[in-house]
Write a structure and sequence with these properties.
Strand order of the largest sheet: 7-3-2-11-22
Shape: globular
Structural class: alpha/beta
Distance between the termini: 100 Å
Radius of gyration: 26 Å
CATH topology of the largest domain: FAD/NAD(P)-binding domain
Largest sheet: 5 strands, parallel
Strand content: 15-25%
CATH architecture of the largest domain: 3-Layer(bba) Sandwich
Length: about 475
């Protein structure tokens, strides 16, 4: 007869059993998982909110302009942004440089208000504010102040993950994911200002990417903020002369490192602080999270290695250090959603005009090298396309294959070469203004964006831009 187990023996047996159990369970789990190639989610109800007129997806330059213009046109607006501030590439991307901004309306208002805040630095190569350097934190403060004054609802750290359409192929709602879980949001009109055309793609729209079917695309760049001796930053400030790009590269080569971008750029803020763009990440698809992750890590390491190498040369670089890198890598090439008009290279060459023009691009065709080898020969160029100032029509901002969806910014309907001109942020703001006005009118008149009379859009767009111009004059007079 076996006698009763002692307490110590019982504990020992239990411990052994517990130690063995996870191994058996994990082995069974792994074997079971190896049989599966997909996971099917159970159907579930998602809270649906329907309390606004216009939903803007993405808070970059195009998105903030769309939201502000829609609100100033009388619409109740909600905006979703996946990062922790408004401004997109301006702020979480630390771009620090606005291009092709000499346009009436919100462009002028933002420029003047940054200047009034002491957050706009002069670009010595331009006297008309078409290009200028700005302080990133000042831009964040300004944009959030404008949104709060207009009572625009905005939610950070939220990404659009699904689009719901009704039986007539009209966008009915979007679904977001955040710390609050999965939520659905309905509105009469939606604007895709995600940069990469995420909403259009989720809605089933056709889209293009890169130069052709083999997709050679423009590289990404991660911005950084450096601190260094004032004399060094002043001497290599590329805002003063583009020749400083070559001189800065020579300094890096002297330090024993070759930058992946052959035209490294430094924008001096003064007081020993500057923004730098000194890297290229080639062949990255912006809608592939793994690729973007690796590109971000590679770029951040390059920024660190270059600044450390310069530091070791001593002299004017003795005190250089990398202070910060951007929250998001800068994307030049993303999805271009098919619209009711495609802006083409022929438009750029001809300097085309449209009756429904919402803005005019004055920037050159700017194609950055697609490979490191090409970069060594020419970091960027026009690929022989001589650009004339050309119009962007409202039709290029209206999705062709679904109703109730507008686009603004990089993801509008255009080909590779036209996009290489209009993608700069001054144009994104102007496009956002028009999309916001059209969305507000669409909601108010209960008409789809493509059904709106052009005269109604043009009249309201002029009103909104005149209001912004007056705000700019007021800011400048203070």
């Amino acid at each position: 007869m076996v006698g009763p187990m002692t307490r110590r023996a019982l504990l020992g047996t239990s411990a052994a059993t517990l130690a063995l159990a996870p191994w058996k369970m994990n082995s069974a789990w792994a074997a079971d998982q190896n049989k599966d190639t997909e996971l099917r989610e159970a159907a579930r109800a998602i809270p649906l909110v329907s309390d606004c007129d216009v939903i803007v997806c993405g808070g970059g330059p195009a998105g903030i302009a769309a939201a502000i213009s829609a609100a100033r046109s009388g619409a109740k607006v909600r905006l979703f942004e996946c990062h922790g501030c408004l401004g997109g590439v301006w702020t979480s991307g630390m771009l620090s440089f606005v291009i092709d901004a000499a346009k009436p309306g919100l462009n002028a208002e933002i420029t003047a208000k940054l200047d009034a805040l002491g957050a706009k630095m002069t670009d010595y190569r331009k006297s008309d504010d078409s290009h200028y350097v700005y302080d990133v934190e000042g831009m964040k403060y300004l944009l959030e102040t404008l949104f709060d004054e207009l009572k625009i609802d905005y939610v950070y750290h939220s990404r659009v993950v699904a689009v719901e359409k009704d039986s007539s192929n009209r966008v009915r709602a979007i679904v977001t994911e955040s710390k609050s879980g999965r939520e659905a949001w309905a509105a009469p009109v939606f604007i895709d200002t995600t940069g990469d055309g995420d909403v259009g793609a989720l809605a089933g729209c056709q889209w293009q990417f890169g130069e052709d079917k083999t997709c050679p695309c423009q590289p990404m760049s991660l911005m950084g903020i450096i601190a260094a001796d004032t004399a060094a930053l002043a001497e290599y400030d590329t805002a003063q002369t583009s020749a400083n790009k070559d001189r800065l590269r020579e300094e890096m080569l002297r330090a024993g490192v070759e930058p992946s971008y052959a035209k490294p750029t430094l924008w001096n803020f003064g007081h020993g602080v500057a923004a730098v763009m000194i890297n290229h990440e080639y062949g990255v698809e912006p809608f592939d999270a793994a690729q973007v992750t690796r590109a971000t890590v590679n770029a951040r390491r390059e920024l660190y290695h270059i600044t450390q190498a310069l530091k070791k040369t001593g002299g004017m670089w003795e005190n250089i250090r990398l202070v910060a890198t951007a929250e998001q890598i800068g994307v030049r090439d993303g999805r271009r959603i098919q619209g009711r008009y495609e802006v083409s290279v022929n438009d750029v060459i001809a300097g085309i005009r449209h009756d429904d023009a919402i803005c005019r691009s004055h920037f050159s065709v700017d194609v950055h090298a697609a490979t490191q080898e090409q970069n060594r020969k020419a970091a960027y160029g026009s690929k022989g396309v001589k650009a004339k100032p050309f119009d962007i029509p409202l039709r290029a901002l209206i999705a062709a294959e679904v109703d109730g969806l507008l686009m603004a910014g990089r993801c509008i309907s255009g080909d590779f070469f036209a996009h290489a001109s209009y993608r700069v942020t001054g144009n994104a703001v102007a496009m956002g203004e028009a999309a916001g006005v059209a969305a507000a009118l669409s909601a108010q008149k209960q008409m789809l964006p493509h059904q709106l009379p052009w005269i109604a859009v043009a009249t309201q767009l002029e009103t909104v831009r005149n209001q912004a111009d007056n705000n700019a004059l007021l800011a400048a007079s203070r």
